[in-house]
Amino acid sequence: MKFLSFLAQYISNPRSVGAVLPSTRYLADKMVKKIDFNQAKYILEYGPGTGVFTDKLLQHRNPKTIIVLFENNREFYKILKEKYQGVDNLYIYNGSAEKVDWYMKECGIPYVDYVLSGLPFATLPKAVSHKILLKTSKLLRKNGKFITFQYTKVKKNFIEQFFSNVDVSLEIRNVPPAMVLSCSLEENMEGTYAI
């Protein structure tokens, strides 16, 4: 069922879904590998789809950690709302990560420790990508991380405009193989977005 839903959404929205199949658990493991779950108070996820990465976040998080999901696709949003009904400290919004600052104000979240992203920056409009990455870089706390995956290196240089440190690792046990980009600011820089 999850596969068919994902495939249907890819066919109808290829630019915003970005993949034919959901991510594998191997990619999910690599995406959460650099998260310090003992210290994280606020984690955001952009484009969770059917919740492959969300499952890992919920599995490892401190129960007091607040997780906020932003899913622009209405069908995926419905799946997520049903799947995580009744989960404490988990907020799900049907909206764009472009408005992340507004949503954070609504939730009373002062900063972000980690942001996981399944957004296909290679196919998103450049202006949308720019807005999302700029706001994200300003919202991250000191030593926070923005972790995303992409299928090509085509957007690596673009992402490096917003983050001074970008570590890349490959996960071949995914269809297609994916590169995980773990992005952070220099240690003496800190998120300064006014909330």
UniProtKB/TrEMBL annotation:
This is SAM-dependent methyltransferase. The lineage of its organism: Bacteria, Bacillati, Bacillota, Bacilli, Bacillales. It comes from the Bacteria. InterPro entries: KsgA/Erm, SAM-dependent_MTases_sf. It comes from Fictibacillus phosphorivorans. The keyword S-adenosyl-L-methionine applies. GO terms for molecular function: RNA binding; rRNA (adenine-N6,N6-)-dimethyltransferase activity. Keywords: Methyltransferase, RNA-binding, S-adenosyl-L-methionine, Transferase. It holds the Pfam family RrnaAD. Gene3D superfamilies: Vaccinia Virus protein VP39. The keyword S-adenosyl-L-methionine applies.
